[in-house]
Amino acid sequence: PVQLQRPKPVPGRSGTSQRRPREPQIARSLIKEVFRYFVKMPVTREAFKIVEKCSEKYFKQLSSDLEAYTSHAGRKTVEMADVEMLMRRQGLVTDKVPLNVLIERHLPLEYRRLLIPIAVSGNRVIP
After folding, report:
1. In terms of pTM, does the model score above 0.70?
2. Which keywords are on file for this protein (predicted)?
3. What phi and psi, each to the nearest 5 degrees, are found at residue 120?
4. What is the pLDDT of residues 40-70, one digit of tens each?
5. Angle at 45 between CA 44 and CA 46, to 5 degrees
6. Dihedral of alpha carbons 92, 97, 100, 103, sign
7. Cα separation, 60 vs 52, whole angstroms
8. How far apart (Å, rounded) are the C-alpha atoms in residues 53 and 6?
9. Long-range contacts of range 83-92, CB-CB < 8 Å, 24 or more positions apart?
10. Domains in the chain, start-ordered, CATH in brackets?
11. Which of these, 51, 52, 87, lies nearest to 66 by C-alpha position?
């Protein structure tokens, strides 16, 4: 009788993937572009690696704080009020410097139009 040959198992491989899911990361090119915009001088690779690590930790903390504010309010969606509260706690937004002033200072016009309501003729408000 003819016997069927079974394939030999490959050592070190199982039926499931052994890869761990990777955490999403901010693009290195974006961090480098923003950092170079503010520094305006050459930066060594070692210094840039430290900047990358710091920015990654900062955004992890930022997102966990926003998540905490949202869940404390009993919602599942982050809203503008959560971002403003975070910026107040960080000292970026104060009574003298409201969020609208920061938006006008640091964002281009197309983003300002999306974030700040604008009164136009006919008593209409955009957006």
Report:
1. no
2. Chromosome, Nucleus
3. -125, 180
4. 888 899 999 999 999 999 999 999 999 999 9
5. 90
6. negative
7. 12
8. 49
9. 86/62, 89/65
10. 28-78 (1.10.20.10)
11. 87
What's the sign of the alpha-carbon dihedral 36, 58, 67, 28?
A: positive
Closest CA to 82 of 64, 95, 94: 64
SS3 assignment, position 55: helix
Give the residue among 63, 61, 40, 39 at the shortest CA–CA distance from 51.
39
Confidence grade of residue 21 (pLDDT, cut at 50, 70, 90): confident
Terminal alpha carbon distance of the chain? 80
Q: Which two tokens stand for residue 83?
A: 């971002």
Q: The tokens 């002033």 sit on which residue? A: 101
